[in-house]
Amino acid sequence: MEGLSEQAEKKAKRDRAALHDEQVELLKAPLWLNDQCIEIWLENMVDEVVPDDRNDVCFIPPSSMALLNFGLTSEYFAGDWKGLELPTKALTLMPINDNVEEKIGGSHWALLAYFRPLN
Fold this sequence. Notes:
Blueprint: H1 6-12, H2 21-25, H3 35-49, E1 57-59, H4 62-69, H5 74-82, E2 91-97, E3 109-115
Parallel strand pairs: 1-2
Antiparallel strand pairs: 2-3
């Protein structure tokens, strides 16, 4: 990846997500971040902040949250999300985009944090 240090390139390539050169360009102002950039950031944050022995923290990828936004039913996710064991998680992090159309878009991201002990 052009323009990235070796350490930054390693962080940009994770088990679940990877940034491509055109997505790295999105990190330069005044461009907009996409869901892949948000997913890499969230994975890095979880990897750096959450101790390895904590298995009660979960994050939902932006792409999955977008599918929820487009009105897919809970039955659609029942099988896929069962393995996440959400009822056992103390903290679930969910990036949300303000896109209202069923295509790539949106202009703002928010991070929804569900902390089960307070609910």
